[in-house]
Amino acid sequence: MSHRTKIExxxxxxxxxxxxxxxxxxxxxxxxxxxxxxxxxPLQYLSENWNDTLRPALMALSCEAVGGRSEATxxxxxxxxxxxxxxxxxxxxxxxxxxxxxxxxxxxxxxNGLALITGGIVAAKAYSALYELAEKEIPPQKRxxxxxxxxxxxxxxAEAEATNxxxxxxxxxxxxxxxxxxxxxxxxxxxxxKIGATIGCGSDLEIEQLGKYGLLLGTIIELxxxxxxxxxxxxxxxxxxxxxxxxxxxxxxxNHSEKARNLLLTLTKKEKIEPTDIKEVVEVMFxxxxxxxxxxxxxxxxxxxxxxxxxxRECEAEQSLKLLARxxxxxxxxxxxxx
Length: 339
Hints:
The structure is a single chain. By secondary structure, the protein is mainly α. Helix content is 77%, strand content 1%. It has a single domain, classed as Farnesyl Diphosphate Synthase, CATH 1.10.600.10. The protein contains 17 helices and 2 strands. The chain has a two-stranded antiparallel sheet.
């Protein structure tokens, strides 16, 4: 059995047990009450390809970690899953991303128009799911707090997108500023842990601690996706270079290597970036110790994430949250070094 399998199996089991129910309910809601045939196809495609068990699982675990019942998070988890799915659609429209992880995105398959309409439908369904909190066993003050957390996270994600667009328009940005954007994009994971702890009636301190954990975990996940983009695992690197939307780790390489700077300058002037060019970019990244930088940074973030849980009572949910954090480093590099 490979090291990768040893890490992935317990993590996947946690996500399935704690997150699958809310995900399947969200998928069902996506397809409800849509009679227009032209809209059924993109919604069906979205339902089949949106497989996020992480966010609902984190919400359930955070609720349990403060002594609550994970079942009480279902409506909020459904709302979060639907919200992240429509935000993902709009992100692909803004970034003009035709494919992601070797599959067409919704706008890539159906066009921006239908994708925009589909995103609007899913957004409406998300807020309907959130409204259902009023019918659940959650005190009124907790319902208000959950709504505020939703509003805050959506605002943070919008701010992150606006900052990204501004950086791209300016054509330059500092490495630290780009990393700040990664942190801003982790607002959804932070919101999941805070909402779960809030529904579980955790103390202000517990909610704050779990929120910090979520922010750190989300940043690690964003860093992983950034690394995979920079190593062309998702086959998007050439397009990002042409658009000036460089991944954080590639910007780090440019700041630490004249060879990397000169290569990227040359590629931005080329009419077409060839596969051999991308191979050279990846080779230069390894030469500049970029992967080692990501290793050290992710290890630091993981340690900080697990340390934020020290004030949370010891229980199965708390142990699962620690495992999810500690698993991120081997998962980060599983594709790189798998035998």
